[in-house]
């Protein structure tokens, strides 16, 4: 075992090894860490050195060491430590310490390397017994100008030579990621070819995730999502990785995903711990130490809610998926191919020929461009791909869309269910791993922070299970060993009622075997016949059916069997699951609290005959009827939520440690109920953690609903809120209502709410009829909606017949409050009910629960809140009292608020057709041109880098370095600085690159822009298209900056003063093959470039750009010309029509293919007209030529072509 070998090696070096300068080797309090004293001279100072070993499970082949010294250590020694800290991968502890001793003692006091004869006398004495080969290799690798080797153990993963070309590649890769909108950080010897950490990050606010999803995921808008890449043997590019086998690839790069509340990158210590996780015990010690020093909880780099599955996905699959994409697969196609061929031997190139994998990525306008952009798809050659950028884009794909993928197998979920929390697919193995491996939420955290929510979830599950078939989804795959129902079924509503069914599926399994023994209730002992074999084991759970001696079933855990035939058991737990007991318990609860009966004296110890049954039945093998009955039984023996909460708070332990009170089966069921709830529910009525008293958050309560417990409620995919707002915007632009949305009630019977919370509101099933058509039924009148949930309202005690016995809430009715797009005239029906057929038009905001418990006192304010969300006065919902409800401003996501929301004054918007009321309600969330949330105007970008809100910032600065974020550290800025241009393939200065004179005669930046038809931004400019174009523009500029001009062949001026309209690009093609007739004609006429105009329509990127030549003029095909340039100057290519265009086509590939077509000599080469006839093309003749070409070839023209060219024709030269 690696850990055992590590411990053995440590004991050996600590007790037996004598290494010069290494003294007092001792363990640390933390696992995988130790200390020693470094004393290089006999009478010299000593320094304490700390060594942290990463990945002990990989020792002694793939681990790494991290060395930290005292602050008082000499600078040259500290610098050596920093350089060597990450360079000992694959060495044993003895080799590490010996190499350190030799390396550090070879330096003199000034840090220089002395002559050999200046070494201490005792050095030669020690060398005699040691093998010098590994030491010599290490010295050479450590101090050579270009490190080449880590150790004798890692020849296949050598340190990368730090050549200028290697450093240029690092800068190019990281600059691409930076230009795409991400923050870059690093630790270690990145540019020196040594082990290093590279981080790529962005703020959560940039991802287009709703505030409800952020709450459900426990992240904040200002948090950074960080991808940390660890390169143990030096940075590796895509080209490096593709030359390795799978084992080498995994050794060369590792991934870790986390969240930081304070910085855009982890500290070095945090990065180390990310790949060498701290044990629970060590973490508890750190937290206790901070608490003792009065420090607040540390909020640096830490795991997020799905870090573990994301880490598994990235480390296991990313590299394979990246190389699948080389043949043209999208991310979706590559993942489907991977999932279809796991564990199979196949010929990859042959298999991907199957069209089912060759499909584009589904386009989504609900997310910003930062999330949807595809660097690999936009890059022509795989070797030019920035690996950090590609990895980060893949991470974002699975982070923001985490609810669309299984958290265990990572397959796309085959369901239309939209959820706000991620979950697993229907495979039993995935559910088992999700629960057993800790991928799900912490039930302890939920119980402590939201006890009312947990009580609500358990109660609704119990109600559904008790309501004859309403519970249809079960915790299958968890391996639950549960008690039998045969001797107990009369006590459980779900079992007794269904037993009468004639359906064969209602039949119960064979009667289980009961065991006879004598039970002493006072001493908690079972006495068996001495001739019998012990039928139980320590830790087993058993149940005694109720009898004359016991009013209820009794469940307990087997303690010790060491003294068989006497077996100890835990205190029996009564199961109050029968109807009469529930009612009696409820009626007596208040009196029992106030007047406690005197304790009954302990009975005289005596053994009485008893029969018990083991928890030995497999839950998965039962039919649905039996499963429901078992769920009722297991829930009936759970403690109350407040009892569980008290245990967690007082012991600081997980519920699984409460072994004598909660059975493994009940704990697994409880975890499933909480984890499988994919809605976001937050209790408005909270519980004070210190005193356990009711505290009402009055500012979040909706006024006008006295006596109802309130919960904030959100359901749907993470982009559901954005889709809802987009639909509201569309409707408001068309109908121009004074208020963009309205509110309405929805009621449903209690047993339906378990599925509603899991699946959301939809109309897939009929519960109460559909007299007014398909859709979600709602009403502005409370009493109408509550009528559909009043099954138990007139007699609340009847609800308790099916209630969870331990509930504190005692729910009698539930209704929800929805926000709806204000378009009643477009509803399926508007009278007597609102019937909304579009799911994206409905967004649930609140859940109202009526509790039949006199102990619950809601501290409700009699006055309405001051900060309110204004509603349409003609459609404001009425509450239970008949008065209109008042909704606090806090009920609406913060991203929709401006300073004008409360006063109802319209903000100053630019070019918006919306009414002031609409703008006031929705603020800047829709990205209207000129608003601060989604600015598109280019001239404004030059005035302020940090334009926009934190919810959806769009920064037009070329750096796009998250202007409102934390400043980039100096060490990270140094990455992008070059001391001198490298001798090979120089990186060109931005926008001013020029290759050798012999390579090209093109001079960038010399085009007379004033002679070109520059247009103002079109009226159809939309935020979505603008973001995509801005992203593509930056990508092209980045590629242009790092590619020699003569190789690139095209040029676009990056000057923002010239790029005033993102929907019109001017591009120059140049540096054609000098042997081409076109190049000869250009040289004869002293023309250095072909000037193109690219125009983008309103439907881009779903439609192609219109590409034409402005100058010079080409000979038409009938005149002997070619090069795919029509008589009117339009480019004749299928790619530039709707027939050949795809939304994933990159503009870099467009320019490349246009240039290749223009250079083609088949069937004829391109030629220029004589200089005397060389005049610019007009837009009109280009459009007509384009239309003719499409008609001749049968290509489909873009539907937005007319609108695009109309704007153009209106501004002819």
Task: Describe what this molecule looks like in 3D.
By secondary structure, the protein is α+β, with helices and mostly antiparallel strands. The protein has a seven-stranded antiparallel β-sheet, with no helix packed on it. A five-stranded antiparallel β-sheet has the order 18-21-26-24-22. Strands 1-2-3-4 form a four-stranded antiparallel β-sheet. A hairpin with a 7-residue loop joins strand 5 and strand 6 (196-203). Helix 3 (93-105) crosses helix 5 (133-143) and helix 19 packs across helix 20 (451-465). The longest helix is centred in the last third of the chain and has 20 residues, at 1023-1042. The C terminus is likely disordered.
List keywords for this structure.
38 helices, 31% helix, 1213 residues, NAD, 7-stranded antiparallel beta sheet, 13% strand, transferase, UBQ-conjugating_enzyme/RWD, UBC core domain-containing protein, 5-stranded antiparallel beta sheet, single chain, alpha+beta
Architecture blueprint of SSEs:
Elements: H1 2-15, E1 22-27, E2 33-38, E3 47-54, E4 64-68, H2 75-84, H3 93-105, H4 121-127, H5 133-143, H6 164-179, E5 183-188, E6 196-203, H7 211-217, E7 224-231, H8 238-242, H9 246-252, E8 254-260, H10 268-274, H11 280-292, H12 307-324, H13 331-340, H14 348-351, H15 369-372, H16 375-378, H17 387-400, H18 428-436, H19 443-449, H20 451-465, E9 481-482, H21 493-499, E10 515-520, E11 525-527, E12 541-544, E13 553-557, E14 566-568, E15 573-575, H22 579-594, E16 608-614, E17 617-618, H23 624-636, H24 641-651, H25 664-675, E18 680-683, E19 685-687, E20 694-696, E21 708-714, H26 720-735, E22 741-747, H27 753-759, E23 776-778, H28 782-786, H29 796-800, E24 811-821, E25 834-836, E26 842-851, H30 916-922, H31 938-943, H32 970-973, H33 1023-1042, H34 1045-1048, E27 1050-1051, E28 1064-1069, H35 1077-1084, E29 1090-1095, E30 1106-1111, H36 1147-1159, H37 1179-1193, H38 1201-1209
Helix pairs in contact: 3-5, 6-17, 6-33, 12-13, 12-17, 19-20, 21-23
């Amino acid at each position: 075992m690696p850990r055992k070998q590590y411990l053995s090696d440590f004991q050996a070096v600590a007790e037996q090894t004598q290494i010069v300068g290494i003294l007092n080797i001792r363990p640390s309090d933390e696992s995988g860490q130790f200390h020693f004293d470094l004393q290089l001279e006999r009478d010299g100072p000593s320094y304490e050195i700390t060594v942290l070993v990463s990945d002990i499970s990989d020792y002694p082949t793939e681990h790494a060491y991290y060395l930290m010294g005292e602050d008082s250590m000499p600078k040259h020694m500290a610098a050596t430590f920093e350089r060597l800290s990450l360079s000992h991968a694959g060495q044993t502890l003895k080799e590490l310490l010996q190499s350190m001793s030799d390396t550090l003692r070879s330096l003199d006091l000034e840090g220089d390397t002395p002559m050999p004869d200046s070494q201490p006398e005792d050095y030669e004495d020690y060398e005699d017994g040691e093998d010098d080969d590994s030491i010599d290799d290490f010295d050479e690798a450590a101090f050579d100008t270009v490190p080449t080797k880590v150790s004798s153990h890692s020849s296949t993963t050598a340190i990368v030579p730090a050549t200028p070309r290697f450093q240029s590649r690092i800068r190019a890769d990281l600059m691409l990621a930076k230009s795409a909108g991400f923050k870059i950080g690093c630790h270690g010897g990145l540019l020196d070819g040594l082990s290093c950490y590279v981080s790529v990050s962005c703020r959560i606010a940039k991802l287009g995730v709703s505030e409800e999803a952020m709450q459900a995921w426990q992240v904040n808008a200002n948090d950074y999502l960080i991808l940390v890449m660890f390169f143990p043997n030096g940075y590796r590019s895509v080209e490096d990785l593709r030359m390795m086998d799978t084992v080498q690839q995994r050794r060369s790069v590792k991934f870790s995903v986390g969240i930081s509340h304070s910085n855009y990158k982890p500290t070095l210590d945090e990065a180390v711990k990310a790949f060498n996780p701290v044990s629970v015990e060590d973490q508890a010690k750190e937290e206790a130490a901070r608490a003792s020093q009065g420090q607040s909880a540390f909020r640096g780099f830490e795991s997020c809610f799905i870090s573990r599955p994301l880490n598994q996905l990235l480390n296991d699959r990313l590299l394979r998926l990246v190389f699948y994409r080389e043949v043209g697969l999208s991310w979706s196609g590559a993942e489907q191919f991977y999932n279809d061929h796991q564990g199979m031997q196949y010929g990859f190139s042959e298999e991907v020929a199957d069209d089912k994998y060759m499909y584009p990525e589904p386009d989504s306008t609900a997310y910003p461009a930062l999330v949807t952009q595809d660097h690999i798809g936009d890059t022509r050659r795989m070797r030019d791909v920035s690996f950090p950028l590609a990895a980060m884009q893949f991470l974002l794909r699975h982070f923001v869309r985490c609810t669309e993928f299984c958290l265990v197998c990572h397959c796309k979920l085959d369901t239309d269910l939209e959820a706000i929390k991620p979950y697993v697919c229907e495979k039993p193995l995935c559910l088992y791993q999700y629960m057993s491996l800790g991928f799900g939420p912490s039930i302890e955290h939920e119980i402590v922070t939201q006890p009312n929510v947990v009580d609500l979830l358990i109660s609704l599950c119990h109600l559904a299970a008790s309501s004859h078939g309403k519970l249809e989804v079960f915790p299958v795959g968890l391996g639950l060993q549960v008690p039998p129902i045969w001797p107990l079924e009369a006590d459980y509503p779900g079992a007794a009622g269904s037993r009468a069914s004639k359906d064969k599926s209602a039949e119960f399994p064979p009667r289980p075997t009961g065991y006879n023994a004598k039970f002493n209730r006072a001493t908690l002992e079972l006495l068996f016949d001495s001739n019998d074999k012990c039928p139980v084991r320590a830790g087993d759970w058993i149940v005694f059916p109720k009898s004359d001696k016991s009013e209820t079933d009794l469940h307990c855990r087997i303690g010790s069997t060491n003294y068989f035939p006497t077996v100890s058991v835990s205190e029996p737990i009564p199961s109050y699951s029968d109807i009469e007991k529930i009612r009696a318990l409820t009626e007596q609860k208040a009196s029992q609290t106030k007047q406690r009966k005197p304790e009954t004296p302990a009975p005289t110890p005596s053994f009485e005959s008893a029969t018990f049954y083991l928890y030995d039945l497999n839950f998965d093998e039962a039919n649905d009827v039996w499963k429901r009955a078992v769920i009722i039984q297991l829930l009936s023996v759970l403690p109350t939520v407040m009892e569980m909460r008290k245990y967690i708070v007082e012991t600081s332990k997980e519920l699984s440690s409460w072994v004598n009170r909660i059975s493994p089966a009940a704990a697994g069921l409880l975890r499933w109920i909480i984890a499988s709830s994919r809605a976001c529910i937050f209790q408005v009525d909270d519980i004070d953690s210190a005193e356990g008293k009711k505290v009402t958050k009055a500012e979040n309560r909706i006024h006008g609903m006295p006596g109802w417990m309130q919960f904030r409620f959100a359901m749907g995919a993470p982009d559901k809120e954005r889709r809802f707002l987009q639909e509201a915007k569309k409707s408001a632009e068309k109908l121009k209502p004074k208020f963009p949305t309205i509110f309405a009630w929805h009621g449903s019977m209690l047993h339906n709410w378990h599925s509603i919370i899991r699946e959301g509101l939809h109309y897939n099933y009929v519960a109460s009829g559909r007299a007014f058509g398909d859709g979600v039924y709602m009403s502005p009148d409370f009493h109408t909606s509550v009528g559909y949930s009043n099954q138990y309202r007139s007699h609340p005690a009847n609800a308790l017949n099916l209630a969870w016995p331990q509930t504190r809430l005692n729910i009698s009715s539930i209704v929800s409050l929805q926000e709806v797009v204000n378009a009643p005239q477009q509803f399926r029906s508007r009278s007597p009910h609102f019937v909304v057929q579009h799911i994206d038009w409905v967004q649930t905001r609140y859940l109202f629960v009526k509790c039949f418990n006199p102990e619950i006192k809601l501290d409700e304010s009699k006055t309405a809140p001051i900060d309110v969300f204004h509603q349409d006065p003609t459609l404001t919902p009425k509450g239970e009292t008949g008065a209109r409800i008042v909704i606090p401003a806090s009920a609406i996501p913060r991203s929709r608020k401006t300073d004008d929301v409360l006063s109802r004054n319209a903000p100053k918007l630019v070019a918006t057709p919306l009414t002031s009321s609409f703008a006031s309600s929705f603020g800047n969330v829709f990205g209207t041109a000129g608003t601060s949330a989604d600015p598109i105007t280019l001239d404004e970008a030059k005035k302020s880098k940090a334009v926009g809100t934190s919810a959806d910032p769009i920064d037009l600065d070329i750096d796009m370095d998250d202007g409102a974020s934390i400043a980039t550290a100096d060490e990270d800025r140094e990455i992008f600085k070059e001391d001198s241009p490298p001798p090979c393939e120089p990186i060109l200065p931005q926008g001013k690159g020029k290759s050798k004179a012999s390579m090209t005669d093109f001079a960038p930046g010399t085009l007379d822009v004033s002679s070109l038809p520059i247009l103002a931004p079109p009226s159809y400019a939309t935020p979505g298209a603008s973001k995509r174009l801005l992203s593509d523009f930056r990508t092209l500029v980045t590629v242009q900056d790092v590619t020699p001009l003569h190789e690139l062949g095209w040029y676009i001026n990056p000057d923002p003063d010239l790029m005033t309209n993102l929907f019109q690009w001017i591009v120059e093609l140049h540096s054609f093959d000098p042997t081409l007739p076109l190049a000869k004609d250009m040289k004869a006429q002293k023309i250095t470039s072909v000037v193109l105009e690219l125009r983008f329509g309103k439907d881009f990127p779903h439609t192609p750009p219109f590409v034409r030549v402005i100058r010079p003029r080409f000979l038409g095909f009938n005149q002997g010309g070619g090069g795919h340039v029509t008589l009117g100057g339009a480019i004749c290519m299928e790619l530039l029509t709707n027939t050949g265009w795809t939304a994933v086509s990159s503009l870099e590939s467009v320019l490349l293919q246009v240039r290749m077509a223009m250079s083609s000599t088949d069937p004829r080469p391109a030629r220029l007209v004589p200089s005397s006839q060389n005049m610019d093309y007009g837009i009109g003749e280009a459009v007509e030529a384009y239309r003719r070409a499409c008609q001749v070839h049968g290509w489909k023209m873009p539907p937005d072509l007319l609108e695009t060219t109309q704007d153009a024709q209106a501004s002819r030269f």
